[in-house]
């Protein structure tokens, strides 16, 4: 099972912008050539296909696409590959967010 992490500002008392907005993410990820935006994330299994609606910023890493999902003012990512950890920390630092497991 993958660990899931949340990039959040909700614990920062002195930050006026506690939510990470869609507009902020669109602006931030537009400057990252290895990211694309999608309103649907599709998972293909051996016998089925599942689509999830939302705001996804897809990171292209080798042959894989890793979704960073914006949901209720926080970004979520599952750690399925150790290469995701430094990227997650980079994004959290740039967005002035904390990283919380869960």
What is this structure's SSE topology?
Elements: E1 3-8, H1 22-30, E2 35-44, E3 49-61, E4 64-71, E5 74-79, H2 84-94, E6 98-101
Antiparallel strand pairs: 1-5, 1-6, 2-3, 3-4, 4-5
Can you give me a brief rundown of this structure?
The protein has helices spanning 22-30, 84-94; strands spanning 3-8, 35-44, 49-61, 64-71, 74-79, 98-101. The chain is α+β, with helices and mostly antiparallel strands.
Description:
The protein is an alpha+beta fold and 102 residues long. Helices cover 20% and strands 46% of the residues. The chain contains 2 helices and 6 strands. A 6-stranded antiparallel sheet has the order 2-3-4-5-1-6, covered by helices on one side. It is globular, with a radius of gyration of 14 Å.
What number is the mean pLDDT?
93
Beta-strand proportion? over 45%
Coarse morphology: globular
- Structural class by secondary-structure content: alpha+beta
Notable features of this structure?
single chain, 102 residues, alpha+beta, six-stranded antiparallel sheet, 2 helices, globular
